[in-house]
UniProtKB/TrEMBL annotation, chains A, B, C, D:
The enzyme's E.C. designation: 5.1.3.4
Source species: Chitinophaga silvisoli
Reactions listed under catalytic activity: L-ribulose 5-phosphate = D-xylulose 5-phosphate
One cellular-component annotation, GO: cytosol
UniProt key word Isomerase: yes
Entries under Pfam families matching the protein: Aldolase_II
GO molecular function, one term: aldehyde-lyase activity
All residue ranges annotated as the Class II aldolase/adducin N-terminal domain in the record: 10-200
GO biological process, one term: pentose catabolic process
SUPFAM superfamilies on file: AraD/HMP-PK domain-like
Name of the featured protein: L-ribulose-5-phosphate 4-epimerase
Amino acid sequence: MSHPYKELQEQAYLANMQLPALGLVLFTFGNVSVADHNAGVFAIKPSGVPYDLLSPEKMVIVDFDANNVTNNGRPSSDTKTHAVLYKHWAHVGGIVHTHSTYATAWAQAQRDIPIYGTTHADHLTCDVPCAPPMHDDMIKGNYEHETGFQIMNCLNERKLSYEEIEMILVGNHAPFTWGKTADKAVYNAAVLEEVARMAYLTETIRPACPRLKDSLIKKHFERKHGPDSYYGQQ
Amino acid sequence: MSHPYKELQEQAYLANMQLPALGLVLFTFGNVSVADHNAGVFAIKPSGVPYDLLSPEKMVIVDFDANNVTNNGRPSSDTKTHAVLYKHWAHVGGIVHTHSTYATAWAQAQRDIPIYGTTHADHLTCDVPCAPPMHDDMIKGNYEHETGFQIMNCLNERKLSYEEIEMILVGNHAPFTWGKTADKAVYNAAVLEEVARMAYLTETIRPACPRLKDSLIKKHFERKHGPDSYYGQQ
Amino acid sequence: MSHPYKELQEQAYLANMQLPALGLVLFTFGNVSVADHNAGVFAIKPSGVPYDLLSPEKMVIVDFDANNVTNNGRPSSDTKTHAVLYKHWAHVGGIVHTHSTYATAWAQAQRDIPIYGTTHADHLTCDVPCAPPMHDDMIKGNYEHETGFQIMNCLNERKLSYEEIEMILVGNHAPFTWGKTADKAVYNAAVLEEVARMAYLTETIRPACPRLKDSLIKKHFERKHGPDSYYGQQ
Amino acid sequence: MSHPYKELQEQAYLANMQLPALGLVLFTFGNVSVADHNAGVFAIKPSGVPYDLLSPEKMVIVDFDANNVTNNGRPSSDTKTHAVLYKHWAHVGGIVHTHSTYATAWAQAQRDIPIYGTTHADHLTCDVPCAPPMHDDMIKGNYEHETGFQIMNCLNERKLSYEEIEMILVGNHAPFTWGKTADKAVYNAAVLEEVARMAYLTETIRPACPRLKDSLIKKHFERKHGPDSYYGQQ
């Protein structure tokens, strides 16, 4: 076990342990990573290890080309997706992948989550994008690596910035979220699940419900995120 | 920290802590205030502070023009809505705002919650009103202040008294509830969420379900609230 | 406090406390009673008292004409319904009333719960009956007393025995369940809620789903209840 | 109490206790068995005994012809189904039966659960099969014994191997799952419930949703189960 990564492992451990506490994972269906861009590595959950058996020193250190640095176990099977995103996104400090129930159902339906209310607009100004399923040759090839590109391509095609839009659904699969820190990425995973649930209920209550109007989207997002934001403590 | 408001802060703290206990909030998506009409102030949750980090002395004291009296932090971003309601509603002692899941879904659908059963009629004699989304100029202007007027205007247009109808949905946004005390306002927030959930299920079980008939509405409301009520201890 | 009823109060207290533990009540929306047919009385939850403030000595003793025997508080507002049922049903030892979410939604929709599977057939051999809402003059009159007759009339019209069918929905209102003991009545309340939830999901998965066929209804009911039953310990 | 079965009973006890912990059972609506193929017996939950009253020594030992070996109580009423499956499936070490809510709703609807996403494909490569309800003469006869054959026939007709497909719905009834160990069978029961819930939500979000494409089914299953699997620790 390498000592230089002790703090990173501790952070990754604490972030991972939030997933079951927030009800976002069944068994091992999820993982969190925390990056150190200066060192060019990230710490990630070991593959298939139940949450109640995790400990900081079991977190695996991987570089941005997905090489296992610490060799203290096999990292999450989704590691290459994390690696490629960190390699391209310099300002992302944490990434979360879950199979949370409602967000995954939208991904399975291959639908964007429409922006129906201010709970959604408090966090992002557009529908939650759903990246289309990959082409067969990408699936058969370097699947998890390509998943990272599928995510980045989807944002690029829609002219969305990863620094503004911190969540996505991968079609047929499940959600990924990220943020400047791992805590923010975990927060986004829980917000996404709640937004997905509310949108599900909204469409049942009112089929063909109209989206939130632009003025409300702008107002709510800027309350929390604009230069004149007035949410939270200073 | 001003000592004169110690009791008010304590009340606001206890009322706020009921929201996570009742499952009505995710993270910081909610707030409770408690008013002292003699002193012309109310205590409200500080903005963006997680519930498990709250304490009585962190509750911010604000006057009915939304001026920060204690300056011990930034009050909830919804503070101006609370202020304007207290200013106009002399008999309201507590106000609650949440983004509870089912009530928010009805708000997002911009629909009143139909009165389908006695659980609803035990608490109010009409559909739960949903105020329409505001005009764009109101949203761009003093948004939270205008939200208070949007609530009052909706009640006025429907000739409803805030002393009888203690809950409302703000279209596209989420619910507000109130009461003579903060405890009653929190109680109303939980009742609204349950009524919203039951109405959701009822419409799925029977689309175009008829509303409760007048005789049952009257009977159930008067059991609990009329001059000859016989619910509860004397 | 009369000592002769100490045991009955203890039983009623324990049975009432099962309702929140089973997730069947919000606040005070439910009550359990336990009858002593030899003494001609039953113990019932006091009206409007939160479950966490209950204690055995607060249980109110009432006779089968709904007279308050112990005068240690006001009994549940539904007391007259319990009284009239005990008066007519000699073999019922406990009655439960809740506003549990799914069962209440079916009651609000004024629909019987169709028998779709063996979970239902393990407990009763027909749809869960939904009694129609009462006539206006009955509602305006002795409402809770008439509710008891509404329940009994519904069973009689369908030629159902209260000793075989231990649960019913009162249209627009909520469920009542009963049994030889209060424990059985509480058990039935939880089973009804689960059966109501499963039927709700079944109809969404398959609209116009066929009912369970007679051979399976008979088999499952007799496994648990027939003369040759082989469920449970001997 | 026979000492030779002490370990088997302990395993069965621990496996059974996982069902309430995972939220898969109400009251006694479920059971787990653990087989010892060398000894030709299995340990199974006693019939109708609440989970909080279970202990290892109450587990009943039964042989593969469903004879009670230990006579320390009556085994689960579903025992003959377990027995016949163990008799024919040499590589199954544990079997689970529950009435978990979403899986049971699909069984009541008599529908296979379509494979809509990778959560499903991580565990099996086809729809979760729903065996049709049995013919009336089989129901009237040796019902639980025939249920085992109904399960095996369904797999055979679809050319599915019990070593690859470890879960099934019995039409109108509820799910059965199995595995090389009882722990795996319990794991499968929880996975099935989650897959059933996600499929339910997916169909509501997008009626007539397409199934997962073959390349993704293959990729996800082989990540976890193929000869080149890279999920979990080595």
